[in-house]
Amino acid sequence: MEKEKNEINMLVIKAKENDKAALASIIEHFYPKIYRYIFYKVSNKEEAEDLTQEVFLKMVKSLKNQNGYFTAWLYKIASNLVIDFYRHQSFKKEVPFDDIKQEAIYEQSKEFPENTLTEEQFKKVLAGLTEEQREVIILKFVQGYKNDEIAQLICKSEGAVKGLQFRALETLKNLLKEKGQYDTEN
Amino acid sequence: MTQKIEDILDICLEEIKQGKTVQECLSKYPQFAAQLKPLLEFGNKIGKLPQPQISHEALLSTLIEVGRVSAIENQKKNEHIQKSFFNFRPIIIRVAVAISIMIIIGWTTLKLSATSFPGDFLYPLKLITEKVRYMLTLTPEGKVEMRITFSEERLKELIKTVQTGSVLDKKVVSMMLDEARLALNKTSFLPQEKASYLLKKIEQLNNYQKDTLEKIKPQVRPEQEELINTAIEMCGERSKWINKMCGEDNDTYRGMRCP
Questions:
Q1: CA–CA separation, B168 vs B165, rounded Å?
Q2: What is the pTM of this model?
Q3: Are A25 and A72 contacting, i.e. CB atoms less than 8 angstroms apart?
């Protein structure tokens, strides 16, 4: 992890000095991670791709002013863009963000087959979590980050990350159990 | 110390990731087994979800778009640097103009103060300028010459004040006599040739001051007659004294050859 972090830091330094190849390497390295991170937060693939591109455009525009942990900075851009995206969406539809989440939960309860978990179902059930819980679940189970890395990315302690992880899994289990769509006993 | 369920959940998730089964892990924590089992199974299932595949077209599109934006940003940056350079030029010009104005104002003020007289607004500046000029004079003979000049200047001021208001400024009289005295004192530290020349000048200065004061005496107010008489007397005596000290019988002054 440390080696990767150092390599990224070197690429970032070069990219700040207008090295096109370094910039391309950063994008190639982070694109799948950022895409997956956004994918589970928005409704479809196209929106995820548009937002992922937007993240890198924002990155290149403000790279000169970047300091601190680059990965955390990049995830922060992605997180803020998703928030802005939903704010914009809810404004357009004049439906509050919470209602959209509730609707998503309702829809998932109608569709879940027994004892299976598909990508789409997982996305829908995630909407029932708080922003921080969702963040931890995606970073841990989708992106495969370790607790200390997640703690750095979301600016929390490792203890807080474990707590969020526990509460997130509890919430997900309860949501599914209520609807009787996901039987963990099987 | 008892472990928190959050920590145990995390340990088990890590062990399952390393290859252990849910049951193996739960067997170590029977007290939490019921609560942990659904969470571990759910976590396990999330971990096994297929990763969403990225579209290579989308990645390529992002690379192209980022390259385009990067080029625009660099162009903007270069324009900004050029603009900053051109913005900087007027600052240099402004600073140069401000310095020039300050020099012109300062120079004009000093020039005006040089022609000022006692009671004028710029007169104190004239005296300060004289002090600075004296301090900046490095050679002893230059300092004596400077004192002679100052003493002459005070005499000019006395003439002017008497002509304009018949008033003899006691302070200026005192300064005139002091400058001549200090010039005389300073000659004792000079080499002989230089000292003889300057003593001659001081003697002439004293004679000139005595004659001039006598000429303006009729214009001076009666109550100031005693003051002008004292000044005339002092100039005369100082002149006589230099003469006496450097007379034929005594052709040295403080061990120097007289003029």
A1: 9
A2: 0.54
A3: no
